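Ops channel
N.P.: pipeline sanity check, posting one input/output pair.
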């Protein structure tokens, strides 16, 4: 239920009293929290942030810039939820807490407005996003990129240098909603491939690899027209009204594909879409439809691992898998990706310490909280340096970008791949050698 008090600037979107009351301040969440691990500060732990929200709710403290800063530093990785014995919905609490910040007096209001503009007017608009990504794709694929790095030209701007370091070594052709995918003769099942926003524009090759892997298992993937941004980043930023609007658009767009499963290869998107029933629970016109939609959503690894037979695959390399936060902690999917990798001949799966600790990407986090993001990335880089993998595998676009930078920081030559890309390459190699 919503707050009954008026101490929140935006009472209609206030954290629910029932949610806040679930936290018994046991502290089991503290050691799982990345920001607490770095700072050692109680206010930078889930327990501390909930305590602040409860204090604002009860009128014991004002919603000051300092309080807002503690909430903004949260990565919303939801590692705390996975270890909480009381079932505290911390991610939902933080989304509603951040929904207060546009209304509250804030020293960071200008930056918040810019973020909302980018999320609403760029990320959620396919044509504008495509135009924005075009020069990024050119830079990633251009030989001038290497020249700029060698001549230190990119160091003229710290933000430019950080962005370039995260770019994949090659950005392929986009794959967007409505694009055709290869037909599968004798397909036993049809699945909707969720194309999303950034995934479709920057990681079109991952979508195509996903479709090929599914095709080898008798599943025809379709990139249905009309679908778009899932709304995850909007919800995380507290823009819940727009996140609900995007959820409704996707529900409407994919209504005609029911009951086909909706396969998602971006962990953050999948987590958000599985929670459409929650975010639209107060919408009488969409609540039931949202629950039905969410029940159809499957992460790619969850779906592929459950199929009857895995194709032959060969990939002789030392591989480390890094859990995306919203796959391990929000969707609670940990073993399926690893089990898929274990089916590959020659794949030496190496575990690193803290494989499920947030890498610091977290959507736009690396842009708005560069210092904390860099600290978490450096910890990953150190682990990669020690493990010396040939390939670093994950299942989320933000993580892939962060690991590209971590590999460069570690000074190693490891490839960064989405698990769909590795499976596709391994299956193709086995087929070629048979």
């Amino acid at each position: 239920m919503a707050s009954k008090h008026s101490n929140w600037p935006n009472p209609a979107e206030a954290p629910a009293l029932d949610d806040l009351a679930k936290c018994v301040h046991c502290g089991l969440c503290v050691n799982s929290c990345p920001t607490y691990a770095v700072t050692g500060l109680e206010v930078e732990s889930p327990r501390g942030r909930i305590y602040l929200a409860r204090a604002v709710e009860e009128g014991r403290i004002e919603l000051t810039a300092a309080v807002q800063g503690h909430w903004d530093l949260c990565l919303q990785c939801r590692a705390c939820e996975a270890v909480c014995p009381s079932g505290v919905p911390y991610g939902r609490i933080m989304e509603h807490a951040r929904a207060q910040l546009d209304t509250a007096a804030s020293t960071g209001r200008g930056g918040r407005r810019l973020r909302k503009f980018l999320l609403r007017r760029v990320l959620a608009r396919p044509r504008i996003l495509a135009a924005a990504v075009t020069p990024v794709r050119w830079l990633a694929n251009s030989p001038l990129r290497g020249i700029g790095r060698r001549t230190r030209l990119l160091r003229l701007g710290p933000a430019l240098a950080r962005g370039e370091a995260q770019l994949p070594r090659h950005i392929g052709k986009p794959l967007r909603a409505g694009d055709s995918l290869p037909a599968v003769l004798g397909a036993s099942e049809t699945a909707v491939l969720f194309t999303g926003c950034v995934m479709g524009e920057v990681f079109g090759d991952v979508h195509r690899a996903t479709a090929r892997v599914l095709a080898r298992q008798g599943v025809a993937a379709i990139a249905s027209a009309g679908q778009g941004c899932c709304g995850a980043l909007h919800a995380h930023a507290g823009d819940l009204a727009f996140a609900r609007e995007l959820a409704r658009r996707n529900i409407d767009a994919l209504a005609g594909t029911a009951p086909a499963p909706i396969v998602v290869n971006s962990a953050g998107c999948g987590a958000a879409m599985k929670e459409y029933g929650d975010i639209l629970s107060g919408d009488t016109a969409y609540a039931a439809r949202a629950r039905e939609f969410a029940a159809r959503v499957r992460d790619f690894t969850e779906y592929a691992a459950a199929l009857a037979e895995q194709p032959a695959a060969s990939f002789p390399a030392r591989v480390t898998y890094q859990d995306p936060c919203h796959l391990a902690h929000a969707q609670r999917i940990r073993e399926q990706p690893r089990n898929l990798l274990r089916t590959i001949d020659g794949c030496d799966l190496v575990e690193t310490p803290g494989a499920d600790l947030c890498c610091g990407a977290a959507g736009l986090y690396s842009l708005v909280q560069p210092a904390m993001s860099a600290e978490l990335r450096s910890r990953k880089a150190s682990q990669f340096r020690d493990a010396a993998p040939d390939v670093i595998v994950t299942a989320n676009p933000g993580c892939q970008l962060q690991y590209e930078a971590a590999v460069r920081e570690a000074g190693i030559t490891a490839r960064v791949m989405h698990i769909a890309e590795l499976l596709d390459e391994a299956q193709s190699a086995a087929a070629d050698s048979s």
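N.P.: looks fine end to end. The two ends are 60 Å apart (CA to CA).
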